[in-house]
Design a protein that fits this description.
Elements: H1 6-9, H2 21-46, H3 56-69, H4 79-94, H5 115-119, H6 134-149, H7 152-171, H8 181-193, E1 198-199, H9 203-211, H10 226-233, H11 239-244, H12 246-256, E2 258-259, E3 268-270, E4 277-279, H13 286-308, H14 312-316, E5 323-327, E6 333-341, E7 350-356, H15 358-371, H16 386-398, H17 401-405, E8 434-435
Parallel strand pairs: 1-2
Antiparallel strand pairs: 3-4, 5-6, 6-7, 7-8
């Protein structure tokens, strides 16, 4: 962790670059395995109590035990997996001068040979991830460009409205004041007269109502209650308030029906295939809205990855407010995304800016609106294995009824991740391509 520490800097063979926490944890785990597995399998029985007594036979025994220990069927671990099991014991020899217990003078496990040589591992060169097949990349790129340019804006407006409703509900009072009943009664009558359908209850809340013993034939069973009350009065309301207004509610449901609350009266967009106008969405539940937001944010992620060539780690460092625009003579503009470069840099990386095309700048702007991220908050860093989960969610949405309504090209089975894209620009470090 601290190669410049005075006790370490003078060691002739010490590691000169600090390990990041992930690498450090891996090294610590294998060092623990070196001590513990040796004790369990050989050293304790042999009476070995110090590293000065370790011989090459001990090292070979440890490696053989490690190669088979993690597999119940007796198969050896791969050479790539075993390299760290060799490197960890060897690392102790690099710091012998400052360790209280160390190998005997002149001894290093496996005579200091490269871990790759010891385990027979041949490192591949070049890009190990194959390019994305054209039959996958073409529909992905076409669909993401279409989604970002057509339905992203109305979806962002719907997402903002949902976040506002969430904040109002979170800040609402727990009881409906009696004096608000007349106001709510008038609002219900107004919606009935103007033909506004009542909001449909979510599936999870419907299950809870049934568990609580609601009559399966109750005309208000599927009616969402709290959203209307919060929107009208700022309070929450309870079932007793629903019962007080049951006549008005039943008339509302009977005359206007019940419909999903989000995406009503959707604007039209051109069908991707025919160009005919089509509503960008059908009325949807809040859960479906969240699913659509995640799918469209993932479309922004993959569009940015494909058209910029940014690494996955650099994509995850993109934050709200990272866009920079420079107007140029003649009416053109240059777009940059400020992120952090981590590969080959000290832990934490350094600030870096990518020059990108207008479509990428627009995609990042859409991601900011869809997520509602505050300035400086990351746009795409959500959970582990981020790129795979995003691709699966995006493909499922594109191949669903929602994607078919818009005329999207189905994406066939197959894996896509930012490392394997094939239409990305070269990673030139030219000043014309990127600036620090």
């Amino acid at each position: 962790m601290a190669p410049s520490h005075p006790a370490v800097a003078t060691l002739p063979h010490a590691i000169r670059s600090p390990l990041n926490p992930n690498s450090l944890w891996t090294a610590l785990k294998h060092l623990a395995g070196w001590f513990n597995r040796l004790s369990a399998y050989y050293l304790t029985d042999a009476g070995v109590a110090s590293l000065t007594e370790v011989t090459q036979d001990h090292c070979d025994t440890y490696l053989q035990a490690t190669a088979h220990a993690a597999d119940e069927k007796g198969r050896r671990l791969s050479p790539a997996t075993l390299t760290m099991s060799v490197r960890a014991p060897q690392m102790l020899a690099l710091y012998a001068e400052i360790l209280d217990d160390c190998y005997r003078p002149g001894f290093s496990p496996w005579a200091g040979s490269s871990p790759d040589v010891v385990v027979g591992y041949e490192r591949p060169y070049g890009n190990r991830v194959p390019p994305v097949p054209d039959e996958l990349l073409r529909p992905l790129l076409a669909n993401t460009l279409y989604l970002v340019s057509t339905i992203a804006q109305p979806l962002a407006a719907e997402a903002a409205a949902a976040r506002t409703a969430d904040r109002r509900e979170a800040a609402s009072r727990q009881h409906l004041p009696v004096q608000q009943l007349n106001r709510l009664r008038e609002e219900i009558r107004f919606r009935t007269a103007t033909g506004i359908p009542a909001p449909r209850l979510s599936a999870s809340n419907l299950t809870r109502r049934r568990v609580r013993g609601w009559d399966q034939h109750d005309p208000l069973l599927h009616l969402a209650w709290h959203p209307v009350v919060v929107e009208t009065t700022g309070a929450m309301g309870h079932r007793r308030d629903l019962e007080r207004l049951r006549p008005e509610r039943e008339a509302w449901v009977a005359n206007c029906g019940i419909e999903q609350p989000r995406g009503r009266n959707a604007t039209t967009v051109p069908h991707q295939d025919s160009g005919d106008p089509v509503e960008w969405t059908l009325p949807m539940s809040r859960q479906h809205l969240d699913t659509t937001i995640y799918a469209l944010t993932s479309a922004c992620y993959y569009l940015t990855a494909t058209l910029s060539g940014m690494r996955a780690g650099e994509l995850l460092e993109l934050t709200a407010g990272c866009r920079r625009r420079e107007d140029l003579p003649g009416g053109s503009a240059r777009f940059r995304l400020v992120t952090r470069r981590t590969k080959g840099e000290p832990f934490g990386g350094v600030q870096d800016a990518w020059v990108v095309i207008a479509e990428v700048d627009r995609a990042i702007g859409i991601a900011e609106q869809l997520t509602g991220a505050a300035p400086g908050q990351r746009l795409f860093a959500t959970g582990s294995n981020n790129s795979r989960s995003r691709f699966l969610a995006l493909r499922e949405w594109i191949n669903s009824d929602a994607g078919r309504r818009l005329g999207l090209d189905p994406i066939p089975d197959g894996a896509i991740n930012p490392r394997g894209r094939c239409a990305a620009p070269s990673r030139s470090r030219s000043p014309n391509a990127r600036t620090d």
